[in-house]
Model the fold of this input.
Amino acid sequence: MSRLGTIARRTFLIGSVAIAGGVAFGVYMARRPHPNPLAAGLAEGEATFNPWVKIDADGITLITPHSDVGQGVRHMQAMLIAEEMDLDPGQFTTDFGPPDPAYWNRAFSEEGAPFMSRDDSWGAETARTVVGYVVKIFGIQATGGSTAVADSFDKLREAGAVARETLKLAAAQRSGVPVANLTTAGAAVTLPDGTQIAYTDLAAEAAALDPVTDVTLRDPSEWRLIGKPQRRLDIVEKSTGTATYGIDLALDGMVHATVRFNPRQGGALNGYDASAAEAMRGVQKILPVTNGVAVIADNTWRAFQAADAIEYDWAEAPYPAEQDDHWAALSASFTEDRLDDEWRHEGDVPAALAAADPIEAEYRAPYVAHAPLEPLNALILVTDARVDIWAGHQIPRTVEDMVAGITGHDVADVHFHNQYAGGSFGHRLEFENIRYAAEIGAQMKDTPVKLTFSREEDFAHDYPRQIAMARGAGAVTDGAVTTYDLSIASPSPIASQMPRAGFPAPPGPDMQIVAGAWNMPYKIDNLRVRAYRAPELAPVSSWRSVGASHAGFFAEGFLDELIHAAGRDPLEARIGMCDYDVARKVLEAVGEMSNWGSELGAGRGRGVAFVSSFGTPTAEVVEVTATEDGIKIDRVFVAADVGRVVDPVNFENHVQGAVVWGLGHAMNCEITYADGMAEQSNYDWHEAMRLYQCPEIVVRGLENQPKIRGIGEPPVPPAAPALANAIFAATGQRLREMPFNKFVEFV
Amino acid sequence: MQLTVNGTTHEVDVEDDMPLLWVLRDVLGITGVKYGCGIAQCGACTVHIDGVAERSCQIAAADLDGPVTTIEGLGTPDALHAVQQAWIEHQVAQCGYCQSGQIMNAAAFLAETPDPTDDDIDDAMSGNLCRCGTYPRIRAAVKSAAASLRGA
Done:
């Protein structure tokens, strides 16, 4: 049985016995470390101390297994190791490393248990521990969920410290000087007389030692790199066109391929006529693939042209063909039998609503595409003995499993080589490029094939963000919000996504339906948040910030309506209701940054929103001007608490990018279905923000919370509601549905 | 047909309507120029033709009428163009995939408009999409590069 099959079967088991039987099994298995994958194939004189550090006489290699999709984690991982190893940039190289269970993601446990991230009770921590065991046992190596820093922060500093102390031990043995009298700096051990022994000189001797694992991490006051502005390791290559992405790779004898498969996603190909395409210049082969065809040519453009020239007979979509029916399915999902979970109920909401004249509103969030700028691609070479595949992907081991399942190779003979990705936003958690590259490679043995999706094909199979709808009801009494009831209906993004990765959909409710809403840090007398699971419609996938991208908009938009009805100031009311110190400080910070309350002038308005996602409380204030030609977004202020800002430069860049992402898609993006197909096929119909629309974005990172958290996704969810609330403040028009350009113009 | 790219002349045998983008990437192996949309919406494929910024996905091979400069010809890691230097100082890139096009667009723009206003920059740079949202840094880098080029 393939590893994937085994994992799938066990995941079912663990899922159903999670707490009961899982712990005992887990404790035994989880205490056993995974073997170091670098130890196999080590050359003479080459040393490795753990899965992240390798040294020989020629140099130092740091392994950075989290996938770099633009968020800068290659740099971040290397710097955490370098901090403890006393390396400077330029004194080491990095490598994404082999896919391996040793690179399991510790931080998945944080959001993998159904508890609020602020909940540090015994029950919550125990559940996280159990989830962590499962992730470790199955060696789940994945980049996502804003976990890379949280996963790496202790682990990679420890890896660096272990390497440092082991090298010092080697130096002590050579020099006869006690370890306590040795120091390190600049990739060398320094003896008391000032003599330096380069780490690379010590590699062969260190290789013979057992790694020193009893290490002490540096006090933050000693940090040279962490918390300081850093220059990204990839900044020169990404400013000179010399960075290589998956789409840029080439091998001798390589041919080019593209695919065309049913744009009614999951639908079959009834038949096709490729006679015209076969005669086109450069076309070598037309191959059958699942639900479509692949064109092999001597050039990407010729492959695209030939794919256009094929006539296809596509079968119907396995979901409603028209967009209106998708909305109707959501609208019909607010029923008892579709109640996924009541995530929170304080006070007595039904009684409070019955006693009041409730304020009611309905909210909507559309399907939205990821559309990273580098289209999907993969380079593959299949031989009888092995498979090599190159692409940017966030779940490397599953790539190998999937390829093995398609080509028939043992998974140990499949080798995935991760690459820089030209963006992802969740797109590279999907496998269409991998699946089709493997299907093509299996039919093109011994010939390297580079598969490139056209932009249109990439859009057609984007697996967009889930659509969602919310119904809010609430009441205010004596200038206070006293009742808040939010019901959200959405298909489960997780249930749609997991089977495509070869995993069963996890049992139980999907927290993503209400993520960012149920965990709002407010004390309200009567407060209820319920999730309704709509039937699966078009296939959907994790989109930067996942459920919080819709639920945060609903929660904070509707709360703003109630605060307005109560006659209160939007920020002061939120601070007044806030029952979590860390969140309150975030709200206070953004108020101070934006000079909240100061006069803005006619036609201008300010909106605030707060959402905590992936454990990072984030507040944003948006300022807009209602001009004659439309809404202009002037400035945005962001405060977020991640526990520790590892690199203030990348932190700021990342937050600004997330705000642009959140605002841009809220402004003008949606995917709609007609005749079973996405109607938007390129950026002309799914534009998001352009530079002239970009506001000034002022960022502050706070460090009050006890755990270290990520920043890739959390600034996305507050952006849309803060914008909607600002537009309301400026114009009196309440926006309850994205994209907002259905209702207002933007300039 | 013949074309000159970054000072080197090449003889290629391609269809008249093959876009310059694919001649550069797949025929000549010059990959700093990127494919993003194919319909002049994203600007990732921007190159200079006779010093003018053009979307190489929209230039048919037969219509090419001047020497081509790609990001590789603008400057190198060891000999950076002022715009590249500014992009590095401001740490503009996240994924970096659009940045070749952004830099080529900015370089041609500043050659024409050495002392741009904020509005000039917004107008000139809004044809280039950045999905990572590095726009605040692009603005800052263009201003730095303009100052640096004026001083040079």
Notes: Chain B has two domains: 2-72, 74-151.
